[in-house]
Amino acid sequence: MRTRRYGAIKLGSQTNVALLGLLAIAFLTGWLAFAFGTAPARLSLIVHATGGVAILLLLPWKSMIARRGLARPRGGRWASIGLGMLVLLSIAAGLGHSTGLVLSWGPFSSMEVHVGAALAAIPLAVWHVVARRVKVVRADLSRRTFMKGSVALGAAAVSYAASEILVRAATLPGGARRFTGSYEAGSFQPAVMPVSSWMFDAIPVHDPDAWTLRTPGREWSLRELATFDDRMIATLDCTGGFYSTQEWTGVRLDRLLPDIRESSIRVVSSTGYDRRFRAGEAGSLLLATRFGGTPLDAGHGFPARLVAPDRRGFWWVKWVVAIEVDDVPYWWQSPFPVQ
Length: 339
Ligand code: HEM
Ligand code: HEM
Fold this sequence. Notes:
- With 339 residues, the protein is an alpha+beta fold.
- It folds into two domains: 2-176; 183-326, Oxidoreductase, molybdopterin-binding domain (Sulfite Oxidase, Chain A, domain 2, Alpha-Beta Complex), CATH 3.90.420.
- Helices cover 43% and strands 18% of the residues.
- Strands 3, 6, 7, 10, 11 and 12 form a six-stranded mixed β-sheet that branches. Strands 9-8-13 form a three-stranded antiparallel β-sheet, with no helix packed on it.
- Strand 10 and strand 11 (294-295) form a beta hairpin.
- The longest helix is centred in the first third of the chain and has 34 residues, at 2-35.
C-alpha cells in the first residue's frame, strides 16, 4: 500500500515537473519562431508543436493530479482552474490555426488567441508553481525517469508528424502554411491585403502635404520621395498568422543615408513605435510609398512604411516620420516591441 502511494506521488511530481519543462519550451520556442522570418522559424516550431502535443498527452495523468488537488479544501483552486482553461484554449487555438480548421475567433485570429491566452497564463502558471510546490527527490532523476520522458517526447513528436501528414492528406487549409505557420492573404492584390498592427497601435491619418520625413541633415516632402522608383518584391509575414507578398516601390535606405558612418539606423513612426537596424542593412531596406503601383493607404502605413525583407511584420515600421543614425548598437532594443 505504501509503495503504491509513493508511486502515485512520484508519478504526480514527475508529471508536474515535465509540464513545467514543456511549458517553458513552448514559450521559448514560440517567441524564437517570432524572432525569425527565415528558416530557423520552422525548426523552432517543430520543437514548439512537439512540446504542445506532449502537454496534451500528459493530460490523463495531470487530470488525476488535478482531481486529487481539487478534493483538498484550500484556496487558490480557481487560479489553477483558470490556468487549465487558458492552456487548453491556447492549445485549441494553436491546433485550429495549424490545421486551418478554425482561423478566427470573432475579431481575433486564432494565432492572436493562441499567443494571448498563453501570455495571460504566465502569471497563473508562476503562482501555481510557487503555491503548489513539488518536491523533486533523488529517485526522480533516475535513468528510468529519463527513459519515460524520452518515450513521452518521442510519442509527441510522432503524433505531431502524423498530424502534419494528415493535414496534407485531407487537404485541409493548414497544408498551405508557410514555414512560419502563416497563411497567404492578398498577395499582389494590395486592396485585399489584411491590415494589422503590433498590439494596440491606432491607425494615424497623415496629411500628405504636411507630412515630412526627417533624415540626418535634411527633410523630405512626400512629393520629393515619390520621385524615387526603387522596387522590391517582398513578403510581409505577420505574427498574427498571415503573409502577403507585394511589389513595393519607394527609396532604398542607402540612398537616403549615403555617407553613414554610425553603427545603427533607427526607423521611427509617428506613433512613437521604432525599430533599430544594423547600418550595413541600409541597402536591403526600402522606404515604400507605393505597393502594387498604388499609393499606400492609411492602414498599410501611408505616407511611407519600411519594407524589411526576411523579417517578421513588426519590423516593417509604418507611418515613418524619421530615419536616424547613431552609435547605439542595433541589438540594444527589446527583441519584441513593448508598446
Ligand atoms: C499545463 C499546466 C498546468 C495545469 C493546467 C495545472 C492545473 C492544475 C489543477 C487544475 C490542479 C488542481 C487544483 C489545485 O490543487 O489548485 C492542480 C494541482 C496541482 N498542480 Fe498543477 N497544473 C499545471 C502545471 C503544474 C506544474 C508545472 C506544477 C509544478 C511544477 C504543478 C503542480 C501541481 C501540484 C503540486 C498540485 C496539487 C496536487 C495535490 O494537491 O495533490 N502543476 N494543477
Ligand atoms: C502555453 C504555451 C503554448 C503552448 C502549449 C503552445 C502549443 C502550440 C500547439 C499545440 C500548436 C499547434 C502545433 C501544430 O500541431 O501544428 C502551436 C502552434 C503555434 N504556436 Fe504555440 N503554444 C504556446 C505558446 C505560444 C507562444 C507564446 C507563441 C509565440 C510567441 C506561439 C507561437 C506559435 C505559432 C507561430 C504556431 C503555429 C505553428 C504552425 O502553424 O506551424 N505559441 N502552439
